[in-house]
Amino acid sequence: MTETLYSELPTKRSTAFDPPAELGLLRERAPISRMKFPDGHLGWLVTSYELAREVHADRRFSSRVELHHSPRTVGGQPMTKRPPAKPGMFIGMDAPDHTRYRKLLTGQFTVRRMNQLMPRIQEIVGEHLAAMRASGSPVDLVADFALPVPSLVICELLGVPYADRETFQRDTARVLRLDSTFEEIMAAFERLEQFVLRLTRRKHDEPGDDMLTGLIATGELTDEEVANMGLLLLVAGHETTANMLGIGTLLLLQHPEQVAALRADPSLVDGAVEELMRYLTIIQFGTLRTALEDVEVGGVVVRAGESVSISVAAANRDPARFERPDEFDILRSAIGHLGFGHGVHQCLGQQLARIEMRVGFASLFREFPDLRLAVPLEEVRMRTDMSIYGVHELPVEFS
């Protein structure tokens, strides 16, 4: 295969809902191609579904953060290589450390355990929809629904006081902003770490029926490990689902015929969520792996030490896997999409996210059958300035 050199990862989106068109063109020509990272590193970009799954599943590719070269810039500057992940920050680790930490959490996120949370999630959704109705039209769906629902759910699950949400939401946003300086990101992350660490230490004297208390009770973890594991869950648990609820609603409002089908047959919501996850890949820079040894992938050799940027957005639009991939269709089977990742690092909280979206979308369009945008589509502020895509605000109105 002929190597193709790209100066940087394509990031300019074609439309509000589509990934950069260059990714599709590149996938057709070279599903794994040479890419120059912002720091000058010559690594690789994967754009096909088959190769994305292959690299995610291959243990010869590492998730250790200290080995990675990032396709993301920080404040317009190349992102410097980071130190090894701190104890408990398991997403930036390989086995056996990753295996140990994840095993301690797996039982907390079983399908059965998540289904047991369904009544409480329905209650939280219902309360926020009632508050929206009471406040009157128009409202900002992000501020009044999409952000608070998953934030409250993950706070209750972890044992984090919901009253502190503005603190962790503000610092999370600073970490995710593409124009943040390295110093701003590190300061925000340090505040988040200390916030959860203080809470963890209080749990020794004030235990609760929550996940942080449960992790402490294992007796296998230090407070730092518990806090860092909790921090990962707190950030991922509110930020990703919130953005899917926001931009997912915006997309559905552009397809009233599909909303009508969903309202007529609520059982379609499961498939709708999978299709939304496939079509709206919100992780803008994909995932990263670094080769631990020379590995042949798609007819080329990735040398030891070379980083591979996996474009999940391109993989989820691969026509070799999904028929008519650029069409949004809640009636298709989108099972197998990579919106939650693949392999040993597949999203631990995916069942929780699915339930929140199923309940959220079904309830929203049932309670507000005439929900509509309060501004033209082009006036909706998209999160092009964040590493997790979505909408900053979503002004909607109803009768």
Number of domains: 1
Query: Could you give the count of β-strands?
Result: 13
| Strand proportion | 5-15%
Poorly predicted ranges (pLDDT <50, ≥5 residues)? none
Query: What is the correct CATH architecture?
Result: Orthogonal Bundle
Q: How would the global form be characterised?
A: globular
Please describe what this structure looks like.
- This protein has 15 helices and 13 strands.
- The model has no long low-confidence stretch (mean pLDDT 95).
- 43% of the residues are buried.
- α5 packs parallel to α15, α9 (182-203) crosses α11 and α13 packs across α15 (350-367).
- β1 (5-6), α1 (21-29) and β2 (32-36) form a beta-alpha-beta unit.
- The protein has one domain (5-397): Cytochrome P450 (Cytochrome p450, Orthogonal Bundle), CATH 1.10.630.10.
- The strands form 4 sheets. It has a 6-stranded mixed β-sheet.
- The chain is globular.
- The protein is of the alpha+beta class and 399 residues long.
- Helix content is 46%, strand content 10%.
